[in-house]
Design goal:
Blueprint: E1 10-11, E2 17-18, H1 20-41, H2 49-64, E3 75-88, E4 91-106, E5 109-127, E6 130-137, H3 145-152, H4 155-160, H5 166-188
Length: 194
């Protein structure tokens, strides 16, 4: 029986001899782990929807302080539908539809103030093992809207926006509006929650 040996002499930057067999074993272990995880991640590690769902509250809180001014002295609440996410090194871009509304309490009932419902790209920076929203971009109104939609959002996200499909658009709006109203009730009138 013949055995093949690979003797290598490795030195670190200070010229100290390194145990080459330990280095090689470590590299083989890391390669094995990579090869084991590769098929698992091929199906969706780049777009982890559950992670995005976990990030929705942070995006909603961030957008509540950015998208709408409370012109009636109320509090802004937001809800988002996450369409997708693109990771870029230590940052990422979340593509969402945001519905934000100002609420005040008038004679024991909720009253609406300023609000917005629009697609938004949220820039997020990596902080340890999570992402934090830091900036946003949304299409301009008027004649720029269509061009901005196509410039800001990937085609698969544009398709999910339901633009021109009234039933789909209205269903999303009703769902996000109900979620925002529920949040407002919990925060402003906790004794009147359904």
């Amino acid at each position: 029986m013949r055995t093949l040996t690979c003797d290598a002499i490795l030195f670190d930057l200070d010229g100290v001899l390194i145990d080459s067999s330990r280095v090689i074993r470590r590299q083989i272990l890391l390669l094995s782990i990579f090869l084991f995880l590769l098929p698992i991640c091929a199906g969706g590690c780049a777009r982890a929807a559950t992670t995005l769902d976990d990030l929705a509250p942070a995006m909603e809180e961030y957008l509540a302080g950015q998208l709408v001014e409370p012109h009636f002295g109320g509090q802004i609440f937001c809800s988002v539908e996450v369409f997708g996410f693109e990771a870029k090194q230590d940052a990422g871009f979340a593509f969402v539809w945001a519905y934000c509304m100002e609420y005040t309490v008038d004679e024991g009932k909720l009253s609406r103030g300023s609000g917005i419902s629009a697609p938004v790209m949220v820039f997020m920076t990596s902080d340890n093992d999570s992402y934090l929203p830091t900036e946003y971009e949304m299409p301009r109104i008027g004649s720029y809207y269509g061009d901005d939609i196509n410039d800001i959002f990937p085609p698969d996200v544009v398709e999910q926006m339901c633009l021109g499909r009234t039933g789909c658009y209205n269903e999303r709006s009703a769902r996000l509006e109900a979620d925002v109203e529920r949040k407002a009730l919990e925060a402003l009138l906790p004794s009147q929650e359904p």
